[in-house]
Amino acid sequence: MKTALFGYCIFFLFLISACSKLEKTDAPVDYPAAYVINGESNSISIINIESDELVQSCQFKKGSWPHHIYSNSTEDKLVVSLVGTDLSSGHAGHGEADDSYLMILDASNLKILACTKTNSATHNAIFMNSDEEVWITEMEDQGTILKLDAKSLKEKGSIAVGSTPLEITKDPNGTYVFVANGSGNSISVVSAATGEVVKTIPVGLEPVGAWPASNNKMYVDCEVSKQIYEIDVTTLTVTDTIALTYTPAYVAYNQTLSELWVSDAQNGGVHNYQLVAGSWVEQAFLATGSNAHAIAFNADYSKAYVTNQGQGNVSVINPTTFVKIKDITVETKPNGIYIRD
How deeply is 98 buried, as exposed, middle or buried, from its count of CB atoms within 10 A (0-12, 13-18, 19+)? Predict the structure, then answer.
């Protein structure tokens, strides 16, 4: 049983084909919420971001090690990849997994709308083409994007990319899809309209994700070389490189303050950067918790949320003062987070 502020959420197992179904929760998510993925606990924690309190935690009954979570354009559906392997200490050598699944959930009650077992570990998934498709990456040496039907999760096609593709993202306008090729040390840029690779951009060692920003840039975090690469979406060229002294885990752009935030898995916190004379310069570091990972802002950028994998909690930050407001205990090894408000 999972502890909750306003009650308990217990999901029972029903076998449907190869996948389990989760019972509809008695506490509908009809409030501004943060959905937090807990890798080791194999669960989702839901936080009310008005009160910043944990409401409930609900466990997957199929698959293991869920990682990141994304929404469709109308925010009524969520897609979660259960990677089947622990990525909290790094991404190298995790291509094969026997317990990897992909699930689409109803955002209001976490009912599973579609589920499929994947052939290999899948880092994450995103909705594409007016939410009619879901695209995933297969973390294999011969990297592939699979295009799936968003209702049935049946395969519709594939796109060859670089070696060991990890995070798949798209720019804010949805023109391109960006795939971080972990072993290929590159970013594959795919046309969302045609599904063709239009460019392969070399970056540092072991890129994990190309994170979108409202300034028309993508920010690539390279775990091994400890660098951030800035890619201009219009020209598809590298426009800046930030050398780090720590292992980055995630990059988020605060459009209100024109700041770049980088989570520090090595030291457990977030670094704040601002543009000074055209270059990103670090302004401050804020300790959040062990193995800090994903960063998400609410809609008006008045609060930020950071998942701390080694701490089992989520830190709430005031972006204006860059001060931690509180920590919210969730479950074991929280990583991905999605905010719906």
Answer: exposed
- Residue 144 contacts residue 159 (beta carbons within 8 Å): yes
Strands 197-202, 186-191: pairing kind: antiparallel
Q: What are 250-277's pLDDT values in tens digits?
A: 999 999 999 999 999 999 999 999 999 9
The DSSP result for 135-165, as a single string, is EEEE-SSS-EEEEEETTT--EEEEEE-SSSE
CA-based nearest residue to 68, from 341, 340, 335: 335
What DSSP string runs through 48-111? ETTTTEEEEEEE-SSSS-EEEEEE-TTSSEEEEEE-SS--TT--TT----SS-EEEEEETTT--
Give the single-character DSSP code of 183.
T
Q: Does the predicted model carry a pTM greater than 0.70?
A: yes
Which residues make beta-bridge pairs with 285? 271
Which of 288, 255, 297, 257 is closest to 270 using CA atoms?
288
Scanning the structure block, which residue is given the tokens 């077992």? 117
Q: Do the Cβ atoms of 116 and 153 come closer than 8 Å?
A: yes
Residue 340: alpha-carbon gap to chain centroid: 14
Q: Which sign does the torsion angle of CA 88, 150, 162, 186 carry?
A: negative
Q: How many CA atoms lie within 13 A of 300 on its CB side?
A: 5
pLDDT in tens, 271-285: 999 999 999 999 999
b (16+ CB within 10 A) / e for 11-47: beeeeeeebbbbeebeeebeeebbbbbbbbbbbbbbb
Q: Which two tokens stand for residue 330?
A: 């969730």
Residue that the structure tokens 């589920």 belong to: 115
CB 210 within 8 A of CB 187: yes
Instruction: Write the CB contacts of 222 (distance below 8 Å, at least 6 apart in sequence).
Output: 185, 203, 204, 205, 206, 207, 208, 228, 229, 248
